[in-house]
Amino acid sequence: MLGVRSGRRLSEGLLLEESEKGRLVVSSVVDGSLANQGLKEGDEIVGATINFDQLSKDDVLKILKLMDDNGFDEKVQVLTKNNLSKSMGTLDSIKAPEELASSFSGENALPSNLRIPSNLVDRARAKRPPPPSDSSLPVLRRCDAAIPVHLSPVQTWVETLERRDSKLLGLVDLHPDVFAVPTRIDILHEVELWQRNFKRISRAHTKVRSEVSGGGRKPWRQKGSGKARHGSIRSPIWRGGGVSHGPRGPTSFYYMLPMKVRVQGLKIALSSKLAQDYLHVVDTLNIPTPDPQYLMDLIRYRHWGESVLIVDAGEELPENILQATESLKTVNVIPAIGLNVHSMLKHEVLVLTLEAVKFLENKLLWHNERFTPLYPFKLPYTDLP
Amino acid sequence: MSFTKNTGGKALDLLQNLPRITLANLRPEPGTKKAEKKRGRGQHGGNRSGRGHKGERQRGNRPRLGFEGGQTPFYLAIPKYGYNEGHSRRAQYQPLTLNRLQYLIDLGRIDPTQPIDLTQLVNGRGVTIQPQKRDYGVQLVGEGAGIFAAKVNIEVQMASEEAIAAIERNGGIVTTGFYDPRSLAVLCKPVPYFLSGQPIPKRMLPGEDMVPYYTDAANRGYLADPEKIQKARIALAQKYGYILPDISKDELFHMLFMRKDPRQIFFGLSPGWVVNMAEKKILKPTDDKLLQYYNS
């Protein structure tokens, strides 16, 4: 696949000609710059990818007008930046970042010294067609809480699990203070470490020289025996002796991160899932069969990903989905109270129901406007909700 | 849509082109985690491990802190004097400036149309009182007297003259009242106390040293004579040069003149009553001895 890296050089060194069948053929090649492109006389040019980033506005308009005039609509596919990122595996991805940006010139520009290896690109997701952008879908849910004046809600599609093929039911408004917060990987790191360590009790325990059985008597006299002087057979220098500075007894690694840091971690995880297109909203969790194969088919058909975390609001989950996910290792269902950063990062895809979205927004936004606790929040407060 | 955008903004746009955030991608902010320095490792850190050469230093046998080689140490040479004697037993009063009070009223955290009590101040997170740390309440401090412009009925534990003048100038009422530590704990955190199921205690009278303070009209003490308080109000107005507004013709007159009984902790609740928060009921004692005790 050609990448038009320097258009001028290509046009200077190539002479194109129309053959009898109406195809575009290379008639002659000038030596030098094109030798490494691998083109030779008689090569037929089947297709070209034009990257508009390096072209000026006039050139782009000229090209688009040409295509429009000549009726190229069926044979031309216009890719936006979004699609480009997903189909990066098809382009020369190792060298793509250089072409795409020069130090944050565009909106979605990547830094020029970034190297993204091609094996991190999921080719299956790249095949997923983007949903139609102009179709008028109804907004099924608006945000309950007031949105700050300077922000606007984020939107995403609502799907259904009842049929295998993806049919969009509508749109849903998501509160920006929960689903579009600035990404802070260090907060996610802190919360993940806390989740791992606060429950940890290390039961490693070694005996000190006084605890090891025996060793009260001096083994041999101090002087005259020709041996080194010792006071006990269980001193740390001895084989079988006690450990001087070993682990002592069950140690607890319990600590609590401030409540607001943990809440922020959840918000950041949700926002990053939404931003990277790994969040799906579903109306309910009712599936037609308790067959796990149905869920796997659905996930594979819709190119969601390898592992899916499904979240519902209440404790009572539909039986079908419970049965279906029981035997599956990579697809799990949890109530919304059980949502945590570790699970969200472990699973590739997060699926929320509309009630779960409402529950999460309610719970996570409360922390933005609450007083400090005088006594634990579990006890009744008249002024706080 | 130039100004309505989201705070995540550019970062979330960048995220679309970056690899998925997973457990393997997390890292702390560079510079936050400094590696722990372990003693006795490495070519230069080993050998004597930073302990020096021979002697008490290397062998870990240095004398105690403050020892000066035999010379009478500083901490023994200076004679004792009771500057800090009993400091941990002295009563402390958390200051509340008029600036802060005005700020709280302006933000709506304190309601000036109801009597302002220590409970209201704590509920609005205006002050933090620790009854267990010898705090005896709140003292009203005159800083911000120039800008204070709210008509309030406030009850504190101590008040400076300037503060009293500033509040009365605006047509309010100040009272100083004493709360013993147990009553103060109940006053600051009423909900956990009611949930414990104990009856509301009666407020104890101040100790010998504080009785003169609370019976003095100049301090607007709750045990002082009301007529003397009225005279003191007029005298203070003359001293600070403002016209004392007539409160009896005020529309909030009834609220401004609400005062607690010397044995009462909460407005509307008497000592001896038990508040049941779960069923929203109040239980009152009927036994004679209990009634006698709580009414004394």
Can you describe this structure?
The complex is a heterodimer of chains A (385) and B (296). Chain A is of the alpha/beta class and 385 residues long. Chain A has a domain at 139-197 and 256-369: Ribosomal Protein L4, Chain: A, CATH 3.40.1370. In chain A, 28% of the residues lie in helices and 12% in strands. Chain A contains twelve helices and eleven strands. Chain A has helices spanning 7-13, 57-69, 81-86, 96-100, 123-126, 176-179, 185-197, 259-275, 292-301, 319-326, 341-346, 354-366, and strands at residues 14-18, 24-29, 139-141, 154-159, 170-174, 201-202, 251-252, 279-282, 308-312, 331-335, 349-353. Chain A has a seven-stranded mixed β-sheet with strand order 3-5-4-8-11-9-10. In chain A, strands 1-2 form a two-stranded antiparallel sheet. Chain B has twelve helices and seven strands. In chain B, the strands form three sheets. Chain B has a three-stranded parallel β-sheet. A two-stranded parallel ribbon of chain B has the order 3-5. In chain B, strands 6-7 form a two-stranded antiparallel ribbon. Chain B has a domain at 92-266. The model of chain B has no long low-confidence stretch (mean pLDDT 93). In chain B, a hairpin with a 4-residue loop joins β6 (274-276) and β7 (281-283). Chain B is extended and about 85 Å long. Chain A binds chain B through residues 81-82, 85, 107-110, 116, 120, 150-152, 154, 176, 180-183, 185-186, 188-190, 192, 271-272, 275-278, 342, 345-346, 348, 371-372, 374-375, 379-381, 383, and chain B through 1, 3-23, 25-29, 32, 122-123, 125, 188-189, 191-192, 195, 277.
